[in-house]
Queue: 3 jobs
Job 1
Amino acid sequence: LKTELYCGHTFTITCDVFLTMHTESLQHENKEDDSSRTQCGDGWGEGAGSSCNIIVLPGDSGVYWCESREGPISNMVNLTVTGGSVILQSPVLPVMEGDDVTLLCKTKTTPSNLPAAFYKDGSLIRKQPTGHMTIQHVSRSDEGLYKCDISGHGESPSSWITVTGDTLTCLSRLTVSPSSSQFFEGDFVSLSCEEDDSSAGWTLRRNTSKQQRTQCGDGWGEGAGSSCNISYIFTLDSGVYWCESREGPISNMVNLTVTGGSVILQSPVLPVMEGDDVTLLCKTKTTPSNLPAAFYKDGSLIRKQPTGHMTIQHVSRSDEGLYKCDISGHGESPSSRPTTTTSPITSSNILVCHLVVICPYFISTLLMVSLYRHRAKGNTLKTNTDERLCEDYDDIAEVTTEHQL
């Protein structure tokens, strides 16, 4: 299992139960790109059962997970395409306490066993003559952000290494108040981690376009128990948020979009039960908020409403899509993708989860990341095309896979 790959190579992501692969873009500052929460085969990757084969290209950066009809339930993996000729290969899944872990620093060209310097959290920890370093009997203190450097070739991207105990903790639930996926810059937002009427021991983390896996209070938000209050939210606070225990991120993910514009679409931030009614509210930053609005789904006008709100009755899977709204003279909102589910997250769901994790191979996602050689001669044309795409992006030469859950 490798954490970093080179542009143009192929890797495979597999769910160990028959789920659906989705991705959510981390480029939240560019909301013109409506690629949030797309499915394997929908413009990226090639599905094969519960696997997805991807030839790595610049636009493939994002958060990946496996999903059932009840919503995202697997671990998350963050793929980041960056520049450079050096990668650090490290475990993509959490490492068991007490195990040995080998990190490999390699160049895109041979030889791959050049002397390398290894860093943890920005500090030099070791220089190795053959480009690999073994951490023996890993513990929680070995968790951190690792990178490596090969003289004359450059520095690798950073990868986060997670250490776990012998059990997995089950689902927590992240809630947002006000309950919306879009906010105006300057709004107050509160996020809370909940599990079976208890919210003790959870930490809120996020990925944004500028920061990866940062904790509430670390330059953003103010912690209050297992809640996090953002008193003045900025556009750079747009990103993916989740709750995390010592075993890793295990809650639902929430994508928050903060706009500096004058129109937002308020829609449910959590999945909606099939059969329920859902109201979408198109509002301006200034009063009044009940102006006439046009509503769009997947780019097509679906309804014009005189008071700025639209109700979808008895929602079903067919109602899922990318929604936005427009208020004449004020502008257009960012896009949001409401989702539906067949059952809520309840204490009984959590009990089942606790029972099943006794056999973790049936509940956790086995993420297989396999590096292949370029396509054989029969696929020379496609391989050359992929190589040209990689060459066109000099600043994108490898893929960093940061295990998140």
Job 2
Amino acid sequence: MESNVLILNRFDLTFREGLYLDIELCKLLRTNCYLVTTAITKGDTVILKLNEEEIIKDLSRVDIKSLKALKIDIASGLNVIKTLLNNSAKFFIKALTVNPNLTSKDLIKEIINYLSRGCIHRELDIFVLNSEDVKLLDISDVNSEELHKLLKFLSNVLGMKNIVLLNYVRNSVFTHILYSSDTSLELHTPTKIPKDLIITYMMLKLISDEELGTVFNDAVNLAEKSLKFAVRCCDDLIPEVYIQEVVDGERYRVIKELSKAVRVLEENSQLVIDLIPNVQLNIAYALPKHLTSGPEDVAAIPGRIIKVGNSIKTIATPDFNTSKHLARALIKVMEFNPTIRAAANIRYDDLILKTINELGFTVSFYDRSQEPPEVKAVEGATIPWGVNEAVKRLGYVPDVIYHKGDYGKEAMILILGKDPNDVVNKILRLGSTLRRNGIKG
């Protein structure tokens, strides 16, 4: 059953905070939301702040009794808060925050005094603030050792069990702390995360009876990823909350493009069959670099592409995490050139290599006999090392990287391209030229 929530927040024209994120999260989590605009801002600049009478008038149009949760910036004003919290018994959860640009220290003190005396707080009520918001509370600078004491102090003053402090910079990373009933959970991110994303996500998830610590961890993880996949709009980066949808869409495209490429290879078996090495042929395609963290984000053909009589066949459809060798190569290649996301392995032969050069492909190589012992001792380290050596040798990512093998290791040629179609076209050009010249790889 969908829940109804009320959100009072500013509309921020940068879309990094404010009602935009609230709306997107409510859509993502399939929650009905009633929105009341309290101000219009652009980052730290206040363009318009609505007065309490206007906000209360907007609230009169909302059936407060039907609401399950409330999110409010306490800078909305004391009378607004009183209007809402007189109905607090109807809210399963209240999520409170404060915007330092929309209010004064005196008003905050007055509101906090009311919150500590004038209303009943429920088990899951949370108060979320950024490290810079602490200044509004008229508390002197806090060092890292005192953070937990500060949160305990706020919990006691407000009479709320759950306090979240975000974006406290410590040792060049951003620290985020959930204080709940005298225990703390501390998380870290390399960048500052959006406060509104955290508080709204937590509120919407807690409605569904999810565990508080898990929800906090998931919220921080979502916030970090939303910035990693952010969309640039002029000078601003807009957080992308539909991360899983983005990933799923890219995974679908990768599988689709790889499947088309395999069909083309099978349809042109006569041009490919003599290029298949003893370990068989495979072709791989990685997700875009910002979505790729390991072999699990690279798709290839399970069981590889094999010879069957005078043709080539696959025994399975493309899938992710099925070719660690090609995956490791691509992940390393993408460090140098993120646009090169596809690769296929073909067998090494001097005549094949000569034809590759004659076709004008850019070529580099690495010598496995020169592999350092400390690299050889690590499972899976050889290929990244080799790719690194080949790219350094040429100065950029080539069309082809090869090695002449080592004891127990077959010599191999790696064909690289922007996508599977690019790789297949190179393979077919090579196969066609070899066939035309009467050369059987």
Job 3
Amino acid sequence: MSTDAISTSSPSPESLAVWEYRRGSWTMTTRAVPAEQHWQVWVNGRYWTTLLASPHEPRWLVLGYLANEGLLASRDAVWDIMVRGHAVWVWLAGAPPADLPRVRTTGCAAAWSRGHEPLAPEDGPVLPLPDPGQVLALMRQMARAARGYAASGGLHAAALATPQGDLVYVAEDVGRHNAVDRVRGWALWHAYPLRGMWLLVSGRISSEMVAKARAMGLGLIVSRTAATATALRWARRWRLPVITYARGGRMRLYWPFSRDAAHTQSPTLSSTMTK
């Protein structure tokens, strides 16, 4: 699929003067660097939080953040949203909770999040076994579509993909959790169904990211790097498959179902899976 057919959300970089040392000498030049901004979030006229994020398309960022915090589930819950200066004002149908239990996140975002830790293993259907070639192809497509990273570096990407191998939307941000929030905000505003979809990310998978994927009803989360131990424990309890280090023709699959369940879908692949 051409990257021109994929919806993308990439920030414009800033250009700054810099001294570069190369081959024994210093040279003055200009380089693109990622921009960031503080976004104040106001809900029904009340200050809610401040997000440290990229400066582009703050509506998707804020809507996704509020959805992942449990304040809204669809666009119907949003009366209005507007951007004024460095503040995003959201009016919801009904009053938001006075407060939510919050824990400090470890991700790349200046925000707070409610606790999500699963109390007990959950039941659920056995999800389809992902095709390795398809997963790797999607990760390559996401990398090509991440124009902001190509311009300046220093950005994280998150993408929404179908189990059939179509890349739907790619978001970039200075914060990896922000990029995931942007994906959900875009999907919420456009009424795009998320159940069973795949989430691709360029950075480390944290427990909060797994909680966001579960809240979105996704069927798989994939990263080109690692996942934390807590993230993998939560994913197993929630029966959410996780793939890490999906690059260079390799990947690691954390399969929350039995090997017998995999065998019914792919006898050849499951024969190489260890318990």
